[in-house]
Write a structure and sequence with these properties.
This protein is an alpha/beta fold. It contains 13 helices and eight strands. Helix 8 links the parallel strand 4 and strand 5. Helix 1 runs antiparallel to helix 12. It is globular and about 50 Å long. 39% of the residues are buried. Bound molecules: dihydroflavine-adenine dinucleotide (FDA). Dihydroflavine-adenine dinucleotide binds next to strand 4, strand 7 and helix 12.
């Protein structure tokens, strides 16, 4: 793991920077590349435009660190409204949320209650709810939460991270549920006791887990979504999918809005199931820092914005 990446991820969690970083004009300007705006209406406009290019969508509202459960209730109500808006605007969009956003640090039972309300609304509208995976402090509780939710609901999916050593064992257990899994590399600053420090090991583990997912997909219809912009890795997964005779339209690729956009459209036009995750919300600073950590060139982009108004 590079020192550079660690420094930026430290910045994502630094309280002073969290409070002030988002106010710098050049940061606000640069974030537009990855986030169409702070309101759901901004996200819907962007979604309509990329859907016209053949992409499907996932919406996520950015928010972390709640002060009280009343805030969790507001977030839950917001997602319920988003589900209504998706139906009204005929978007092929799903939603993805962080459990801490709906109260996980405060009460697991209340969080389950909010999640249930959102998922029931999604079910009534034939929609789907993804659960993001947060830092490793939350892995156990999130997995337990998903096992419970999956037993109650068909329309729920979970994100897992290939940088954690434990994920292969976790996936073995998850596959027993015929789950929906979004596989990612992982975006948090994790110690080497928990996560592969070398990127090449993270990538190799991603491929290994992909094969497990493809096999389960073929055998019992588990939903597998490969969430990466790593085109070499995707090419290997596409080849493996052919080996498992998984048709192109069933191979789901998820990427972030604003990153390798041309490639997203190319893959969709080639017949793959491609979803672009659009983030919006006022609390975007730590999320944006994680995007910077993923690619040094993004920092140069922010710096360039310091000198152009
Ligand atoms: P990698 O970092 O190796 O990048 C491969 C290539 O993609 C780069 O060389 C570059 O060309 C391009 N690229 C990648 N990131 C870029 C960026 N920010 N800007 C510009 N180019 C970039 N993580 C997590 O811990 N929990 C979660 O719930 C989720 N959820 C999630 C959903 C979806 C739909 C996606 C796509 C990703 C996530 N992630 C996540 C983030 C994930 O863990 C990871 O940090 C990013 O996807 C970047 O890793 P890549 O797999 O793209 O590979």
């Amino acid at each position: 793991m590079s020192i550079f990446r660690n420094m930026i991820l430290w910045g994502a969690d630094n309280q002073w920077l969290r409070k002030h970083g988002a106010n710098f004009f050049f940061v606000r300007k640069a974030v537009k590349r990855f986030m169409p705006g702070e309101q759901i209406e901004d996200a819907i406009l962007a979604a309509q435009s990329i859907q016209a290019n053949g992409l499907k969508i996932i919406f996520t509202h950015l928010g972390e660190n709640l002060q009280g459960l009343s805030e969790a209730e507001v977030v839950a109500k917001h997602y319920i409204e988003v589900l209504k808006k998706i139906e009204k605007t005929n978007l092929q969009a799903e939603i993805s949320l962080k459990l801490t956003q709906i109260g996980l640090d405060l009460s697991v039972e209340k969080t389950y209650g909010y999640f249930k309300a959102i998922t029931e609304e999604a079910l009534a509208r034939k929609n789907f709810v993804w659960i993001d995976m947060e830092s490793s402090a939350y892995t156990d509780v999130t997995l337990k939460f998903y096992h419970r939710a999956r037993k109650e609901f068909e329309n729920v999916g979970l994100c897992i991270q290939s940088y954690l050593y434990r994920t292969e064992d976790d996936l073995v257990e998850l596959l027993k549920l015929t789950p929906a899994i979004r596989l990612v590399k992982g975006a948090y600053n994790e110690p080497k006791e928990k996560a592969y420090p070398d990127k090449k090991d993270v990538d190799e583990n991603f491929y290994k887990l992909s094969e497990m997912l493809l096999e389960s997909s073929k055998e019992n219809g588990a939903r597998a979504a490969f969430a990466t912009h790593d085109l070499d890795l995707l090419a290997r997964i596409q080849k493996a999918a052919e080996k498992y005779e998984i048709p192109q339209e069933s191979l789901e690729i998820q990427m972030l809005y604003g990153i390798v956009t041309k490639e997203q459209i190319r893959l969709a036009n080639a017949g793959y199931h491609v979803r672009s995750l659009i983030s919006y919300g006022e609390f975007w600073y730590p999320w944006y820092m994680r995007r910077l950590a993923e690619r040094p060139a993004n920092v140069l982009f922010v710096m360039k914005n310091m000198f152009t108004r």
